[in-house]
Amino acid sequence: MLRVAVIGATGYTGVELLRILVHHPQAEVSIVTSRKHEGKPISEVFPSLRGRIDLLCGSLNFDRIVKESDFVFTAVPHKTAMEVVPDFHKRNIRVVDLSADFRFRNPRVYQQWYQPHRCEDLLSQAVYGLPELHREAIREAPIVGNPGCYPTGAILALAPMISHRVVDLSHIVIDAKSGASGAGRDPTEATLYCEVNEGLKAYKVLEHRHGPEIEQELVQLAQQPVGVIFVPHLVPMDRGILSTLYVTLNQRQDTSHLLELYSEFYEREPFVRVCPEGQVPNVADVRGSNFCDIGLKVADNGGRAVIVSAIDNLVKGASGQAVQNMNVMCGFPEENGLEGVALFP
Amino acid sequence: MLRVAVIGATGYTGVELLRILVHHPQAEVSIVTSRKHEGKPISEVFPSLRGRIDLLCGSLNFDRIVKESDFVFTAVPHKTAMEVVPDFHKRNIRVVDLSADFRFRNPRVYQQWYQPHRCEDLLSQAVYGLPELHREAIREAPIVGNPGCYPTGAILALAPMISHRVVDLSHIVIDAKSGASGAGRDPTEATLYCEVNEGLKAYKVLEHRHGPEIEQELVQLAQQPVGVIFVPHLVPMDRGILSTLYVTLNQRQDTSHLLELYSEFYEREPFVRVCPEGQVPNVADVRGSNFCDIGLKVADNGGRAVIVSAIDNLVKGASGQAVQNMNVMCGFPEENGLEGVALFP
Amino acid sequence: MLRVAVIGATGYTGVELLRILVHHPQAEVSIVTSRKHEGKPISEVFPSLRGRIDLLCGSLNFDRIVKESDFVFTAVPHKTAMEVVPDFHKRNIRVVDLSADFRFRNPRVYQQWYQPHRCEDLLSQAVYGLPELHREAIREAPIVGNPGCYPTGAILALAPMISHRVVDLSHIVIDAKSGASGAGRDPTEATLYCEVNEGLKAYKVLEHRHGPEIEQELVQLAQQPVGVIFVPHLVPMDRGILSTLYVTLNQRQDTSHLLELYSEFYEREPFVRVCPEGQVPNVADVRGSNFCDIGLKVADNGGRAVIVSAIDNLVKGASGQAVQNMNVMCGFPEENGLEGVALFP
Amino acid sequence: MLRVAVIGATGYTGVELLRILVHHPQAEVSIVTSRKHEGKPISEVFPSLRGRIDLLCGSLNFDRIVKESDFVFTAVPHKTAMEVVPDFHKRNIRVVDLSADFRFRNPRVYQQWYQPHRCEDLLSQAVYGLPELHREAIREAPIVGNPGCYPTGAILALAPMISHRVVDLSHIVIDAKSGASGAGRDPTEATLYCEVNEGLKAYKVLEHRHGPEIEQELVQLAQQPVGVIFVPHLVPMDRGILSTLYVTLNQRQDTSHLLELYSEFYEREPFVRVCPEGQVPNVADVRGSNFCDIGLKVADNGGRAVIVSAIDNLVKGASGQAVQNMNVMCGFPEENGLEGVALFP
User: Is B119 in the active site?
Assistant: First the structure.
């Protein structure tokens, strides 16, 4: 059994990692840490875990962690991540980092949107953890930068079209809608129940940090510049991201041909489901699962297309994908721990 | 006091008309009808009305209605509306119809999206009831076709740009998100609590009947063809439509200039509020009110723009706008009955 | 026009006071204060108010407030309230305080559940602001302690039975369920969207501070000891309290007789609606209104009864009742500003 | 592998059975039937199942079902159940029936609350499927009547107290609150999103059919009459039942002693978790899991007690318990297929 440490176990991505890992046939959680709840049983912080996992929240003692675990997930905020990941790296332990700190290949982009990077040298060793695009590199990576939730939904929706060069790259609109868990568990006025419930708004219009992350991957895929308009929205639900994308096609296409192209592209992918013609996805159908569902339809006599993707932001958009990356890194069957069917209703 | 009849009072737009009219200083509800609840007190159908309105649901007796009322709202489904509106019209009573039956100037468009029209001759006398665009015509109209909810939010978001010819008309994306009350009160599996809650989906992608309605108004405003991609979404909340629009500008603009243009365009409008630069609207801030809030921001170095509008689909998107139309038609102050502040939280 | 100051205008009860007062025919808001948002337009803090109220959040300058207003609502937390109310009192301005600081007649009870009271002398002049029980005293009161939300729903549900001495006083169970706005606008983990949504729990079981407040009023009504078991619950909705009460009757009764007793007791009350036999209330039917709806049914062959009451915790449970108290104190018609019909759906 | 048929697979308990059985190490779903969706792939009815289960909805062909399966779950409405269960029984196939039809030992009680029973003779062979009370009988039962959702939460909350005879049996109050999935998937006005959301109501006060079911089990446990007041409520959430029970104790007790008694009673139960002193359960912590969490606290100086239990109505309250029963009947480890941790948030 792979002994796994979850650093920062008491946020939403932390508890979701634990929920998933509890079922994993080849991994077991050996250590959980939490600055805020140090010394408390994790099952007191999250009563959902009672009877399933029985660990105390420990402190960030690197030596002890390395001694008692073989693999690390860092589920801490960005900036904190780059303060701790190097300590694991130099102790030769592989890490999947769920923050933004190891997602960017170019430290200047990171600096522009976050802050100066503390360990630029490690960036070149880190791999962007979207298995559908980077599986081979992930296999050997010492550090995997687990993708952001919005980028996961958006990139998977676009990758087949960009790979097949059927889309006008200067002209991509991503209208994304997320549930509230994406904002994390730190108390803020904006994420109070009464501020979110029965409300609906766009936020950080054209200014969200997931914008440059999306662009990095699309540019790499296209090998040329890509223009993206990215507008995220906050929706009154716990989980889920629905991304609706509007693209101009390079030449007229019909829906069924594009769907074939998607089905082929994702043929061997265990977690991408392409909807049959006439259907588009609903986040309710992926809730709690690691699936990304994708549907599409051409518009404007085939001159444009609407693509819709749905993920659970805490699973395929965070902790599920992190476990998928661990599976790839460790040579485990990729679906291990992630076979779950969505909870509907 | 204007005596008002509400035909089809037991749907969501019906009860919303009653909620608003109860406070109206120059109108009183004299008649409510309901096929389904005939003979029942309306306050038994909607206990929210107890102590505020005390009428029995009557049948569709035209002679009695005309005798006991001076003005009619038809809040019945499309198709039913065109079966009853002519009977009021020929009795010389003015009607605001909340269905789709009197919104289209071209009966062929109506036929294509709904069914053959039963009284094409009346269409030419009907006015599309968006006061911000057609106030003068509404004043004298015998029949007002009250706009659809999606069209209200989308047209108000675009009208200033189209009027000022700053936008590329071939290229307008409308990504609209609605609460569940827009689907009405008839029981269907798709609108059950557990089907909507914690779900989020696009539906009728490029096939929604409000698409041609939006186009009709934009084309008239532009006096040339307009290409619209309209994708509605269902969001787990009772009320509200947030529309996010993506447009290409004919020449580079900055945000503040466009906001000025909007502020001027809506300067005298009592129910349109333009958000200050840096802000975009939230449906929570218009819930229960007749306001349409609009914000915008340029993208792509001023080459494109994102516009966001928020309405309450049952108020500005239906019953509030219907009362606003009545006010215009009757020469009442336009805000009468509609001064309410949004219910937040 | 009565010039009204709202001290602490940027919490949920504050914005609700403003929403209601905007429509009041005999009062106008002349001053709003906020420590947190001092200097900001109130309509920037709450965009719902844009175009309806146009004041800057001021500081707590007593002299200025007294100069520019004739009446004060204090919508600040308990403890803060008793620090500011005396300053208004000695300037001869009447106050409705929405905190707990002036609700208790016995300062020792206050001290036991909150902290030592700073101005015990004023307690004797303050009146508990439940107009249905204390209307005459409220009329002349210099200070009104506006009731808690749970007590309002529970006391109104019990008052007729206790007044008529039909109920066993040693044996009253109050199972109350509240929406999240009752917890206020200060960010806490427990009131985050994802903690409340799709959750349901009892909290502060037998330890909630509204327990002794309920007992104070029931004891006064009964003129003898009363035993109450009070368990509040948090429900995933914005507004509303549903209280389900279980009582043992002193002698067998039937439902219709008890309902008559209730109807008579509340006959002249503008804001209490007794449900017809066979019906019990739904918070959805009072949302945004000042009504308290009450239904009941006997159990156990008439030996016991179940009573259900519904209020909007921010209206009849807070700001609406505060305005009702102001109306009583100032000799205004009691329904002024409070005629609104509930927002359904 | 046990081949399992799910009769009536397209309701909420049906899809929940499939979600659970997909993971079961010793069972596989071989047949699903649906009158409404006959001929359709089940993964088209529930896109959440796509890629996980690949069966067509079949018709109710008993011979084929018996040929292709070894075990049957009937997830059809009551009345339908007693029309089909005998056909399986006479073909020697064991059945867990999720309807009410095989829960009552006394056919007259069934008749009083439902309708005349069609196969009274089978009732005597059926076992009430609450493993915590009837495990041994379930092991051999040809037919198991799977308990109702409310009874499961209420009985588990009371069983230790009744077994230990510490509670006054004439005097038990059960205030239960359920999410909307308990009402099933058939479209009704009362379960539309906009009727449930932001609403909260008691319903079927003292008239709910789960009342006599609760009484049957409590009476059997107590071996004497039991008086129950049962009031169910509808709460705006998908899943979960929170039951708050109010009991009078036969002699004074303290909380910790009662908790010990509960912990011992449920010591070997895999799915009942007793909360530590000072804690009460939240439905959010059992969502999607088969756990029943129970907390309690004495009131009134130990003379009374408040007990709170939480279950997921579709899991421990229906399909999870059904699978647990199957495990008991087939001699499988009782937790198989049911190890899942609750989905939080």
Answer: no
